[in-house]
Amino acid sequence: MREEQSRLEKQLLAHLDGAYNLARWLIEKDQDAQAVVQESYIQALREIAGFGAADVRVQLLTIVRNTAYTWIRKRGDHSNMSAFEDAIHVGSSSEPLPGSDYNERKQRLHVALSRLPVEFREILVLREIEGWSYAQLASALDISAAMVLSRLSRARQSLRRVASGIRRNQLPGEL
After folding, report:
1. What is the fold, at CATH topology level, of the domain defined by 2-75?
2. Which end of the chain is more exposed for a tag (fewer CB within 10 A), N or C?
3. How far is the CA of 28 from the CAs of 1, 90, 148, in angstroms?
4. Helix, strand, or coil (residue 112)
5. Residue 168's pLDDT band (cuts 50, 70, 90)
6. What's the CATH fold of domain 84-170?
7. CA nearest 123: which of 150, 87, 91?
8. Domain ranges (residues) in the chain
9. CB 125 within 8 A of CB 140
């Protein structure tokens, strides 16, 4: 039993970078994101025996997600939260992003992603950066697979719209 717990603890440690990335995108403040990850890790350690055959990474990031939302609600900072029923409807833009420099495009993407509502950032980070499957997203977010596809589509459209509206003078000097 102790060997199994030790193995699972090592697996948890291997996913702390992903946990921090998700928390940082949801919370937006470094110290708060670190606190969320620490709180989530402690909770995951307590619940580790119940993970069974479940994917440890998915379990940890689900705990991080839930902890981050609790953190946001407790602090009353809902500035980046938007109800999905009233989501912004945007048209697709076929125009390429201005500027061909890789670093500029990377900065533009970073700025655009940080300007999205937290629900859009969350699903994009989990799918595109962490590589979650649609089934994992549906399970962790407690929504249907059809809703996952819809939310991803709206998030991508919104990201495209925001990124295309960012001018060069709005980009930070360094990432």
Report:
1. Rna Polymerase Sigma Factor; Chain: A (1.10.1740)
2. N
3. 38, 24, 23
4. helix
5. low
6. Arc Repressor Mutant, subunit A (1.10.10)
7. 150
8. 2-75, 84-170
9. no
